[in-house]
Amino acid sequence: MPRAATTADIFNAIAESRRRDILVFLTPHERPVTDIVDALGLGQPSVSKHLKVLREVGLVDVRREGRQMFYRTNAAAIRPLHEWTQRFERFWRSQLLRIKQEAEGGQS
Question: For the domain that residue 16 is a member of, what is the CATH number?
């Protein structure tokens, strides 16, 4: 089965670890491309390609100021990721609680 394009949805877009790094870096506030390049130690062409993918799926927004482009995360677009991962968080929380109860019950 062929793999879906990275721009098909947000889950495919964040499959690449460098894109996740970029999203984390942009979380506090918007940044120019040069800040992303410097902070993450990636080449400018690589960062631009990753930002293009993130922009196409709506995970980042861009604002132009003169010749400089500023990127920021789009919190509304990240919500589906958050909601999806919460399902697993609830699962692991219940699993850990069960393990704890079994361990404490076995210590009597």
Answer: 1.10.10.10
- Does 84 reside within a domain? yes
Strand ranges in 3-106 using DSSP code E only, listed in sequence order = 31-32, 60-65, 68-73
Q: 44-56 and 17-26 are packed helices; what angle lies between their axes, rounded to 10 degrees?
A: 80
Q: What is the pLDDT along the chain (108 residues), one digit of tens a residue?
A: 555 556 678 999 999 999 999 999 999 999 999 999 999 999 999 999 999 999 999 999 999 999 999 999 998 998 888 888 888 887 888 888 889 888 988 654
Identify whether 85 is part of a domain: yes
In a domain, 4, yes or no: no
5 found inside a domain:
no
Estimate to the nearest angstrom the gap between the alpha carbon of 30 and the chain centroid: 15
Instruction: Choose among 68, 64, 62: nearest CA to 26.
Output: 62
